[in-house]
Specification:
By secondary structure, the chain is an alpha/beta fold. The chain has helices spanning 20-31, 56-62, 67-81, 93-99, 121-127, 129-136, 147-155, 195-200, 228-237, 252-259, 271-275, 290-301, 304-321, 324-340, 359-371, 374-387, 404-410, 423-432, 467-480, 497-503, 520-530, 545-554; strands at 2-6, 35-39, 87-91, 106-110, 141-144, 161-163, 183-186, 207-210, 240-243, 264-267, 282-285, 394-398, 415-420, 437-440, 453-459, 481-492, 532-540, 564-571. Helix 10 (252-259) packs across helix 13.
Length: 572
């Protein structure tokens, strides 16, 4: 079996702290006869965005133009390296998105926190479960390094999640504590690790800090990342190891401290809750609570017998459930099962045509409006800008679905009317907004008199229409609009990066009802053939934070980075 491992974190030498849990697994899997190649930073170009302790997303915010070429380099390098591989093993959910492009069966390991913040596996599963599943549903298996991550994945609808922790080396004996007692912290000096909380309680403690990162200035005793042999010596002589994380997928340092027979004080968050049995293998404290953190440290400093009892119980737990032999054996079993499992069925963004849109779909759309999701805010801002709604305006909302845009326009004092060809859509719209008018109607045969409306809007409609239907809609819009009335269109740009990926079923699935995706010039031509005069031809950046920054910087020069097309035309 040949496996290509893709990771954004991997040690560059024996004393490098980054990604040791990945390299450790690679070594043990190789010992079991698996041929493993690794694709890591240095194999692909990071364009200066490699981690500085604050994370790749933090760096991308300073240099957003470097993110697209870095992702392209990742994809090209992985695809080339995996050409002869049987399987790709990607680390972190974001790595799984890159693995999609390798053209090979793949498994993903979710580790939880990543120094990028926005790419934290927990955050992606909780706040962006639909995009997360578009990646994870295509994986042959999803390995989660903690029970907390496994529960988060299952809650997000991931069906192939399996719990396999990171492996931990267990030293042959427990070291003697130094005098005076030392409190050890090891890891990144970054916000998600609770460094501000640790700094707030550091006065008077014999604190040893091994690590580096953007918050190093808060801990003047920090010595940078210690060489591995020195770190092991510090573990051996520590009285307490602190892990005050505010977010943690697994907790390698915590597990290593327990393997060394040392009591831990840890934030009650993520994988740390699974590692530390409060009052049995360590002490858990609320994350972001410096007084509770200091109280737990002082309690252990005052009670050596408690320290020894907790440390011994923690060591027993690691020996029983986190040995490298056990972890490597279970990982190879996942590889074998992945290669014998049928490929996951691709999940489409919308699996049914409009005629089958059901109550659940309409509820989802209405809920997105009520919660004002980022996608909804972007859409409504574009509608407001294009339509320029004023009190008393008679506005026709074409393809109103559950009535979100219709209701939005009513908040400006307009007199809106929503129309949709789907009875289920109108039924939902009438129930949610009983004071507004909604009609079941074909956009090619509108039930309104000539000149009934001052303005019309089609937000996310024309991409669902073939050319004859679009022509019919434009003709009817001209008829029901007053002379000089406007028709505004908000629609996906088929040349944008996301739409190109959808078209190739690479990262996102294409909506099969999008039978009429058109470029801006094509839409302008359709307007003009119908007798409209286009007075606005614009675009909008997306609602994805990092991508939006790149689009705003570079979208003016390329269709590739123009997320949504926004056009307005007058009834001449």
């Amino acid at each position: 079996m040949k496996v290509t491992v893709f990771t954004t974190s991997y040690p560059r030498g024996p004393d490098d702290f980054a990604g040791r849990f990945v390299s450790g697994l690679v070594e043990r899997v190789r010992e079991r006869g698996v041929d493993v190649d690794v694709v890591a930073p240095g194999d692909y170009s990071t364009y200066g965005l490699s981690s500085d302790g604050g994370g790749i997303v933090r760096a991308a915010k300073r240099r957003p133009w470097a993110a697209p070429p870095m992702l392209a380099s990742m994809a090209r390098t992985l695809r080339a390296a995996a050409r002869d591989a049987d399987l790709v093993h990607a680390h972190w959910l974001a790595g799984g998105a890159v693995a999609l492009l390798a053209g090979k069966p793949f498994v993903v390991t979710l580790h939880g926190t990543i120094s990028g913040g926005a790419l934290d596996d927990f955050e992606l599963l909780r706040k962006a479960s639909r995009p997360a599943r578009l990646v994870l549903d295509r994986a042959r298996a999803v390995i989660c390094v903690s029970e907390a991550l496994t529960e988060a994945a299952l809650a997000a609808g991931v069906t192939r999640a399996v719990f396999i922790p990171n492996g931990i080396d267990v030293p042959p004996e427990v070291g003697e504590e130094a005098e005076p007692p030392e409190i050890l912290y090891a890891g990144r000096l970054a916000p998600e690790k609770g460094i501000e909380d640790l700094a707030a309680v550091a006065d008077g403690l014999n604190l040893v800090v091994s690590g580096d990162g953007p918050l190093r200035g808060l801990l003047p005793q920090a010595s940078g990342f210690l060489p591995r042999d020195e770190l092991e010596r510090r573990y051996a002589q520590a009285a307490i190891v602190v892990c005050p994380s505010r977010s943690e997928g697994f907790g390698v340092v915590c597990a290593e401290a327990m393997a060394n027979g040392k009591p831990v004080v840890a934030g009650a968050v993520g994988g740390l809750v699974n590692l530390v049995d409060d009052e049995r293998t360590g002490l858990l404290v609320p994350p972001g609570d410096p007084p509770a953190l200091r109280a737990a440290i002082d309690r252990l400093l005052a009670d050596k017998a408690l320290r020894l009892r907790l440390g011994a119980a923690g060591r027993e737990k690691i020996v029983a459930g986190y040995s490298w032999d056990k972890v490597a054996e279970e990982t190879v079993a996942v590889y074998e099962q992945a290669l014998s499992t049928a490929p996951p069925r691709k999940r489409l963004a919308f699996r049914r045509p409009p005629a089958s849109y059901d109550d659940e779909f309409m509820d989802v759309m209405a809920d997105a409006y009520e919660r004002k999701t980022a996608w909804t805010r972007l859409r409504l801002a574009a509608v407001e800008d294009l339509v320029e709604p004023h009190e008393g305006d008679r506005v026709l909302d074409l393809g109103c679905a559950a009535g979100a845009v219709t209701h939005f326009l009513s908040t400006f004092g307009c007199e809106p009317v929503g129309v949709d060809a789907e009875p289920v859509a109108i039924e939902h719209a009438r129930k949610r907004f009983p004071d507004l008018r909604f009609e079941v109607a074909d956009v090619r045969d509108l039930p309104f008199a000539d000149g009934s409306f001052d303005k019309a809007v089609a937000a996310d409609l024309v991409e669902h229409l073939d050319d004859p239907t679009l022509a019919g809609m434009l003709a009817e819009a001209r008829r029901v609009l007053v002379p000089g009335g406007t028709l505004s269109v908000y629609t996906p740009n088929p040349k944008h990066l996301i739409e190109r990926l959808k078209a190739r079923e690479l990262l996102l699935a294409q909506n099969p009802t999008h039978i009429g995706l058109r470029t801006a010039p094509e839409l302008v031509q359709a307007f003009e053939r119908a007798g409209f005069a286009v007075d606005r031809d614009e675009w909008r950046a997306s609602h994805f934070p990092v991508l939006r920054t790149v689009e705003r910087s570079l979208g003016g020069g390329t269709d590739f980075l123009r997320y949504r097309l926004c056009l307005r035309a007058r009834n001449s």
